[in-house]
Structures are given as C-alpha cells and as structure tokens.
Amino acid sequence: MQQLTLDNIDIPSLPPVAVMVLNLAEKETTSLDELNDIISRDMSFSSRVLKIANSPFYGRHEIADIPSAINMIGFKAMVSLVVGAASRDIYRKTNKFENRLWEHSMAVSLAASLVSERTRAAKPDEALVAGLMHDTGKAVLSYNLEKIYAEVIEMAERTGCTYVEVESKVIGYDHTDAGGVVARAWNLPKSLQTVMENHHKETYDKSISPHDKVLCDIVRIADSICLNRGLGFYKAVPVERQAMDRLGFTDEICEKIIEELPEKFIQQRERFFD
Ligand SMILES: [Fe+2]
Ligand SMILES: [Fe+2]
C-alpha cells in the first residue's frame, strides 16, 4: 500500500478569497465594504457568486454587481456562499466520489443550520459553514488515495463499521486527523479547525471552547440525520442522545427536520451546482 502519512499528505489549495472571507467573518466588527473588496478582487469568484445570486433559489433578481448581491442576500449568507463555491472546487478534485461527498457536505450544512435554528444553540450561518467543511478530510484523503479510499467507502457500507474505524484500519489515521492538518494548512478560523478535527468525538478535550463544542455537537447530529436519510452516503446510525440533550434537541424537532430535509436539500443543491 502506498504510504501516506499526515506529514506528506498533498493538500489542494483553497482559493485565498475563501480564507480571507472566512477570517473576516470571524471578526467582531466587519463592514460590507471589506467583504465587497475581497470578493471583487477575484474576477472568477465574483462571476460565480453573481451567478448563484441570480439563481432561482434567490428568486432570479437581476443582480449585476457584488455590493447589490451582498445587500440582497446578506453578509453571512454571502460568506457561506463563497465558502460553498470554494469547497465545491475541492470536491471536484476527488474524482469518483466527488458528487457523493459534496452532496453529503451540502446536506449536513443544511441540517446543521436547521438544528441550530431550532435549538438556538449557535448561529445558523456559522453551523452551515461548519457543515459544509466538516468532512473536507475525506475529500483530501480521496484526492491522495483514490483507489484505497474507494475501498474504504465500500468497506464501511458493507460491514456497517464507521468511516473513522475503517479509515484507521486501512490508512492508519482517519478523515478527522486529515481534516485537522488541512484546516491548519489553510489557516482556517479556529472554530472550523475544531469541527473538522473533532466532529466524531463524543467527549471533547478541555482546551476546546464551549462554543466550539456546541458546533461539533450540531455537526455530529446533522451528520447522523443525513446518513440515516442516505444523503450522500447511507448508514444507519443512532443520533447521539448525549449531544441531543446538551443542545436541548428533542425527538420532535429531530423528526421535523428529518421530514423537511429532502425538499430543502433540493433547493440548496440548486445554489451550488453550476
Ligand atoms: Fe466526518
Ligand atoms: Fe459527515
């Protein structure tokens, strides 16, 4: 087997515009002008963002420039749009499982925003970005080890073991380890690094802030809802009770989200499939 360690992993580059926008979103005070400046400087990104802003999802307005797009869809939605478009590029590099990985990430981002909206445990936009990025480690593993990762997916589906278990066995480490390396290499905000590295942990390290623990709980709940619904991948997994209790996420809210998710997912997909 090709030896791939966390030190020699080949990390695709994240467009600088996405890193700048993510860091801007982390600041306490930011202005629309700053966001406009960053996006407008990147021509190819600007045109993609405009295309999405003019898509049916937003009601097909005639939006010709970035400031109008930001005004219409709002600062936070624009941040997730830029990150979504950037992470779509990363998934394009993963060949065989591109669509499944991407669909899974989009579904989890949507479910995570619904979970935080209903529980008010975190800001829905923040949860949306965390959901979009949570499994980037899988995309990077698949990008580095295409054939081996195809076996991992096949084995996880056939045996009923979790991806983390199969990855550790076959590769020697898992997608959250890879996710942590990638998040640091891209210089992503701390909360995203934490989610990418800890979203499968049931107990968290003391060094993780209460806010980031909540984000990890939200993403893990959203992840299991999507896996149970077969969004991207199928896996029968219980929604973790402890995390549900910590967030005040009841069975009723869970049922409601499970019911709404497929239709909302179709709308969400329209935004990012170009
Ligand atoms: Fe994961
Ligand atoms: Fe996932």
Report on this model:
The protein is mainly alpha-helical. The chain has two domains: 15-92, no CATH class; 94-274, Orthogonal Bundle (Hypothetical protein af1432). It is built from 15 helices and no strands. The mean pLDDT is 88. The protein binds fe (ii) ion (FE2) (2 copies).
- In the residues, how many domains can be counted? 2
Uncertain segments of ≥5 residues (pLDDT<50)? none
Helix-and-strand structural type: mainly alpha
- The ordered H/E elements are HHHHHHHHHHHHHHH
Task: Tell me the CATH architecture of the largest domain.
Answer: Orthogonal Bundle
The fraction of residues in strands falls at: under 5%
The number of helices is: 15
CA radius of gyration is 18 Å
Shape: globular
How is the biggest beta sheet arranged?
none
The total strand number stands at 0
Highest-level CATH class of the largest domain = Mainly Alpha
CATH fold name of the largest domain:
Hypothetical protein af1432
Mean pLDDT: 88
Provide the list of bound ligands, each named once: fe (ii) ion
